[in-house]
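Batch manifest, entry 17 of 40.
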Amino acid sequence: MSKRTNWALILVGAGVAVAALWWVLRPEGLPEGIAAGNGRIEATEIDIATKIPGRVVEILAREGDFVEAGEVLARMDTDVLRAQQAEARAQVRQAENAYLTAQSMVAQRENEQAAAEAVVAQRRAELDAAEKRLRRSLALVDEGAVPLQQLDDDRARLLAARATVNAAQAQVAAARAGIDAAKSQVVEAQSVIAAAKATVARLQADIDDAELKAPRDGRVQYRVAEPGEVLSAGGRVLNMVDLSDVYMTFFLPTEAAGRVALGSDVHLVLDAAPNYVIPAKASFVSSVAQFTPKTVETETERLKLMFRVRAHIDRELLKRHLEQVKTGLPGMAYVKLDPDAAWPPELQIKLSR
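Output type: structure tokens
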């Protein structure tokens, strides 16, 4: 009995020691009004891709390079595009020549109309003279002063004068129609010039797009293609991340997610750098649960629902630490559910210099 008692005392003492050690080393709970969730650092990814099919001529960026917006990252072959553009420019010159020809044709037709109108005036004068001569002949025939033959000749001259007036008027109408036709050729030539110039501009846009440029500041993650490869439209050449748009995505249970307000303070602690606390702001709370139990009939089950939350890091802070920004790093996100809650000392903002 004495040995059993001793062993029991030893076990009790060991249990008390373990309990005391656990009490000393126990993890401290979060203050009221602060919630935590596991997450991962992410950033907006951008594919640098071709607009039209072609061959990759040169890739200027390497994996890991920091690039600025507008910087040329790769070039595509443009020989065919430049040949097509030269052909389009020749078509522009041809259309411009046709336009000048049409304009000169309009001027020629207008001169012809003026000449035809002058002939009409002349023929009207001749008709007027023929009418007057016929009236005199009619008066003199009654008096027997002129022979009937002259009367017949005057009548014939009148008819001939009327015919020449009609012919001259027809020439005027033909000249007007010629002017309209020439003007339509001018309009057509202008349309051809506009179409040819649009083709030149489109080909120039394709040539410009053959230089693949960085749309934003960021870092190249990896190369998808190599020089010499032929890619289809939309073929990826590089992949980069926008280091000005970095955030952590983490998950919170229903009770905590329902209290997160957009713009709430979030402090991030990364596994790779546990000594630093990074400030962020809640920018998104999912309206749909990510992990849903089979049934949600009880309050306990509803509390198992997890909602996705996103916290963005300030752009100015990111610019000051571009070299340290890396995506994919896991960590913890601590979010204020109560604006009046105080951050514990271990979660105060701590940044590298």
